[in-house]
Amino acid sequence: MSEASGTPDPTPSPPEPTVSPYGPAAPVSVPVAAPAAPAATAATAATAAAVPAYAEAPAAPTKRPVVMWDLILTIVLLVVMIGLALLASFLSFFLAFASDSCGSGITCDYDRIATGMLVAMVGPLAVGLLVLIAAVVLLVLRRLAFWIPIVGIVLVIGVFIGGVALTISGVPGSSA
């Protein structure tokens, strides 16, 4: 009841919280429906029944779990790929011996030999660095990354073979 007018209060007061052996209970709120037209109430109830309450709430972003076998395999394959890139870069110095057969009777294309040697020397290291960056990015994003070093190994071998083929093509009469 309202003290000033003596009329009944339109909203009831919430019930008192109860005490249980597990501690005080949280206060319970009682929903009070506002008076509305009967047609609007039926339409609102039908709409509320059709759309579940959880559909309106935005989904919380979930973090992907770390896949341990992928992390270990990627690291091992990256070490193998970097070792292979360093080996290929070291072996490219021996391509300078391709010009040994060049002499008074054979004219070689020294620019092509030097370009092939440079491709075989720098190419595997550049591919290795790019693949290393791509693998780290995928690991940070927690995506599967084991395939990146495998592709890198194939590319390192391919770039080295391309540099060797370019070097050999500068020497006429070589069978390659």
Explain the layout of strands and helices.
Layout: E1 19-20, E2 23-24, H1 38-50, H2 68-91, H3 110-140, H4 147-169
Antiparallel strand pairs: 1-2
Helix pairs in contact: 2-3, 2-4, 3-4
Helical fraction equals 40-55%
Q: What oligomeric state do these chains adopt?
A: single chain
Task: Extract low-pLDDT stretches.
Answer: none
End-to-end CA span: 105 Å
Structural class: mainly alpha
Mean pLDDT metric: 81
Envelope shape: rod-shaped
Strand content: under 5%
Order of helices and strands: EEHHHH
Number of helices: 4
Q: How many E strands?
A: 2
Strand order of the largest sheet: 1-2
- Sheet bearing the most strands, described? 2 strands, antiparallel
Radius of gyration in whole Å, from Cα? 38 Å
Q: Can you describe this structure?
A:
The structure is a single chain. The protein is mostly helical and 176 residues long. It has a domain at 68-94 and 109-169. The protein has 4 helices and 2 strands; from the N terminus they run ββαααα. The chain has helices at residues 38-50, 68-91, 110-140, 147-169; strands spanning 19-20, 23-24. The protein has a two-stranded antiparallel sheet with strand order 1-2. Strand 1 (19-20) and strand 2 (23-24) form a beta hairpin. Helix 2 runs antiparallel to helix 3 and helix 3 packs antiparallel against helix 4. It starts with 18 loop residues before the first strand and ends in a 7-residue tail after the last helix.
